[in-house]
Specification:
43% of the residues lie in helices and 19% in strands. With 399 residues, it is α/β, with parallel strands linked by helices.
C-alpha cells in the first residue's frame, strides 16, 4: 500500500509537470490583465475553462458574488471534501503585487492533476474561486452564506520571498470616515464655515496620540481620500480611510472603539458631523497544524526549503482567517523571489517571472499531494479534524 501511494504521488508530480506550459500561460495571462476586487470577470472565466474541459461541474456567481465560482469533482464517494482556494484579484493601481495570478492557477493545476491522475480518489475536490481578497472580503461573504459548512479542509498557497507553512495573520477591518461641515468663503466670511478638513486633521492627531496605548501588534493605517475642493473655500465635505489591525477579533473590537471615538470627538470639536462606513471584519488566521505539517512534508518532498515564520511582526491580514473559524484551514507560502515584498512593483515583476512560474509549479504539486494525503490516509484526516474540533471547543469555552 505504501509503495502504491508513493507511485501515485509521483504520478501527480509528473502530471503537474506535463501541464506546466498550460499553467504558465494561464498565470501570465491573468498577470498581464489585472482586475481589481469584484471585477475579476476575465480571470474567473480563464480559470474555469480548463476545469470545465477536465470534467468539473462549474457554478459561477455563488454566494451572491458575481465573479466567484465553484468547480466540483467527486471521485469515489464517501471521502472528505477538500477545497482548494483560488484568489485572482489584483491591487488597484499596481496589478498583481500579491501574486494572486499564481494562487488561482496553482489551485486549478492541482485539482486537474488529481482528477486525471487518480480518477478513483476517495473524496470530493472543489476549486473555490474567491474574489475580492484585497478589498471586500469575498471569503467572509462565502462563510456567512454557508459555503464552507460541509468542507473538511481548505487550503491555498500564496507566493512570497520564502516558503512557510504556519505564518499567522491579524484580524482587521477597514473604515471610511465621512465628515460633513459647512462651506464658506475662506477669506471673506470664514466664521460662517465649518471645516470638515480640520475634523480630519484632528482625527489623525488623535489617532497618533493613541498609538502608545495599544499593544505592539496593533496596526493603524490611514489616508485622506478627500481633502476639499479649493484653498479659498472652507471644506464642507472630507473623507479619510483607515485600516485597523489587531491580534484577534476581540482585541480589534477594543481598537475600533477607541479609534471611532477619536473620530467622533474630532468632528464634534469643530462642529462637523461624522458618518462611519465600516467594511467586513477579517478574522485572525487559524492555521491547522496537522494540515500544515502535511503540506510541509510535501514541500520538502519537492526539495523546497521551508522556513519558520517570523516570531514577531511581518504579517498582514486575509479573509482566509474567517474560513479558519469554520473548518480546518492553512495558508502556506511558496518562495518566488529573494527580496521583493508583496504589494510592491518589484513583487508584480516577481509574480510574472521565471521564478514565479517555478513557484507556481511547486505550489500546484504541494496542493495536489496534500489533498491526496488527506483523501488516502484516514489517520491524517482524523488528526486534522480532531485538531479543528478541539480548537472550536476551546474557543466556545472562552466565550
Amino acid at each position: 500500500m505504501y509503495l502504491e501511494r508513493v507511485g501515485e504521488k509521483q504520478a501527480l508530480i509528473d502530471k503537474v509537470d506535463a501541464m506546466d506550459n498550460q499553467l504558465r500561460e494561464l498565470a501570465l495571462k491573468i498577470h498581464q490583465n489585472p482586475e481589481v476586487s469584484f471585477h475579476e470577470h476575465q480571470a474567473m472565466n480563464w480559470l474555469t475553462e480548463p476545469l470545465e474541459e477536465a470534467g468539473f461541474v462549474i457554478e459561477k456567481g455563488i454566494a451572491t458574488l458575481e465573479t466567484s465560482f465553484r468547480a466540483t469533482w467527486e471521485g469515489t464517494p464517501g471521502g472528505p471534501t477538500i477545497v482548494l482556494l483560488a484568489e485572482y484579484d489584483a491591487l488597484a493601481g499596481l496589478g498583481h503585487g500579491c501574486g494572486h495570478n499564481i494562487i488561482g492557477t496553482s489551485a486549478v493545476g492541482a485539482a486537474i492533476a488529481l482528477k486525471e491522475t487518480i480518477p478513483n480518489l476517495k473524496g470530493k475536490i472543489v476549486v473555490l474561486g474567491t474574489p475580492a481578497e484585497e478589498l471586500g472580503g469575498g471569503k467572509i461573504i462565502m462563510v456567512e452564506q454557508g459555503v464552507f459548512d460541509q468542507v473538511d479542509a481548505a487550503m491555498m498557497c500564496h507566493p512570497h520571498k520564502k516558503s512557510m507553512v504556519l505564518r499567522g495573520g491579524l484580524a482587521c477591518v477597514d473604515a471610511t470616515f465621512k465628515y460633513y461641515g459647512k462651506a464658506a468663503h475662506a477669506a471673506a466670511s470664514p466664521e460662517q464655515g465649518i471645516s470638515a478638513l480640520d475634523a480630519v486633521i484632528h482625527t489623525f492627531v488623535a489617532v497618533n496620540s493613541l498609538r502608545q496605548f495599544f499593544k505592539d501588534d496593533v496596526r493603524i493605517h490611514g489616508i485622506i481620500t478627500k481633502g476639499g475642493e479649493a484653498t479659498n473655500v472652507v471644506p464642507a465635505y472630507c473623507e479619510a480611510e483607515f485600516l485597523l489591525r489587531a491580534e484577534n477579533v476581540e482585541q480589534l473590537e477594543l481598537v475600533r472603539e477607541k479609534i471611532y471615538a477619536a473620530a467622533r470627538y474630532s468632528a464634534e470639536a469643530v462642529g462637523a458631523a461624522l458618518e462611519i462606513e465600516e467594511g467586513l471584519i477579517y478574522a485572525e488566521r487559524n492555521n491547522n497544524h496537522a494540515l500544515a505539517h502535511l503540506f510541509k512534508d510535501n514541500l520538502e518532498l519537492l526539495d523546497e526549503e521551508v522556513s519558520d515564520p517570523p516570531k514577531k511582526g511581518g504579517i498582514g491580514s486575509s479573509d482566509i482567517g474567517n474560513v479558519g473559524q469554520v473548518t480546518a484551514t492553512i495558508h502556506p507560502y511558496i518562495k518566488i523571489t529573494d527580496s521583493a515584498n508583496t504589494h510592491t512593483p518589484e513583487f508584480v515583476d516577481a509574480a510574472g517571472s521565471e521564478e514565479g512560474m517555478k513557484g507556481l509549479n511547486k505550489a500546484a504539486k504541494a496542493l495536489a499531494l496534500t489533498a491526496f494525503d488527506i483523501c488516502t490516509n484516514e489517520q491524517s484526516l482524523k488528526a486534522i479534524r480532531s485538531e479543528f474540533e478541539e480548537w472550536k471547543r476551546s474557543k466556545q469555552q472562552v466565550k
